[in-house]
Design goal:
5 strands
């Protein structure tokens, strides 16, 4: 079972690089979607009923129209990956107060498919994940080595 520490490093890095690849794919797919004017309907911090109210996520609902047809959505980023917690959620809610005008990026093939913010993929966002993941894998390796 000496392969377990190596496997921990491999699994962590493959997962993080896979997540980065997914974000790059989504960014490329949605990069040319046109923006249309919209209005924030509501903006609040939502909590999962199973949490202790420390892991809130921002819920921003907005309205927009394409070719005169009204639409409603609550998708903030096209990759639908939300991280942060209450502080990050509060910052999002502050950016999107009710009644504020927004640019909504719309899928030309399906206008009901829309979002507010493009996916961000950068070394600055990926490096901390790689570092944290490798620290966790190193801890697993050390604990495994000490115990076995």
């Amino acid at each position: 079972m000496t392969w377990l520490p190596v496997a921990a490093f491999v699994v962590v890095n493959v997962a993080i690089l896979g997540l980065t690849g997914y974000k790059l794919f989504v960014r490329q797919k949605t990069a040319n979607w046109p923006g249309v004017p919209g209005v924030v309907r509501s903006s609040r911090i939502a909590f999962d009923s199973s949490t202790d109210r420390t892991g809130g996520t921002a819920l921003v609902e907005y309205d927009y129209a394409v070719n005169g047809h009204p639409y409603h959505s609550n998708v903030r980023t096209p990759d639908d990956i939300v991280v942060g917690g209450n502080r990050a959620a509060a910052a999002v809610v502050a950016r999107y107060p009710s009644g504020a005008p927004v640019t909504v990026f719309v899928n030309p093939a399906d206008p009901s498919d829309a979002f507010l913010e493009h996916t961000v993929v950068s070394v600055r966002s990926t490096l901390p994940l790689l570092l944290a993941g490798n620290v966790i894998a190193a801890v697993i390796a050390v604990v495994y080595t000490v115990m076995f």
